[in-house]
Write a structure and sequence with these properties.
- By secondary structure, this protein is mainly alpha-helical.
- It has one domain (about 1-150).
- The chain is about 90% helix and about 0% strand.
- It is built from 2 helices and no strands.
- It has helices spanning about 1-130, 140-150.
- Helix 1 (about 1-130) crosses helix 2.
- The longest helix has about 130 residues, at about 1-130.
- The radius of gyration is 59 Å and the shape is rod-shaped.
- The termini are far apart.
Length: about 150
């Protein structure tokens, strides 16, 4: 009976090694392969995450630098626009002042001319009243014109 048990044991061992063991080994190998691939994928994912983190940090830093640069340019442009506006305002003010002075000068000349005419008319009227009989306006028009010019 011991021989029978030994024979059954060897038959069972042979059957297990021939039909049961290869699928188990194959399943274990596939599982080990999947685990190795998963670990490699995890490592790649970790590296890609680190790379993406570095890229996003770099992009954020570049964005901040560009925004600071754009803000600086905008401030410079605003100051430049203000200075240009001040210069335009000065030019316009000078033009208005020159125009006003010219207009004042013209008004002054008109007023002087008007006063001259009035004084001449008053002088002629006064002289006419005083010397009405002796002055002939047509005969002495040139003399009166010269008096008017002198005034």
């Amino acid at each position: 009976m011991l021989y029978a048990q030994i024979v059954v044991f060897f038959v069972l061992a042979w059957f297990t090694m021939k039909f049961v063991w290869p699928p188990i080994v194959k399943a274990l190998d596939e599982r080990a392969k999947k685990i190795a691939e998963g670990l490699a994928a995890g490592e790649r994912g970790k590296q890609e995450l680190e790379l993406a983190t570095r890229r996003s940090t770099d992009a954020l830093r570049e964005g901040k630098e560009k925004s600071a640069e754009i803000l600086g340019q905008a401030e410079k442009r605003a100051a430049q626009i203000i200075e240009e506006a001040k210069a335009q305002a000065r030019i316009e003010a000078e033009r208005v002042i020159v125009s006003a002075k010219a207009e004042i000068e013209q008004e002054s000349l008109r007023a002087k001319e008007g006063l001259r005419d009035q004084v001449a008319a008053l002088a002629v009227a006064g002289a006419e009243k005083i010397l009405r009989r002796e002055i002939d306006a047509k005969a002495h028009a040139q003399l009166l014109s010269a008096i008017q010019q002198d005034l």
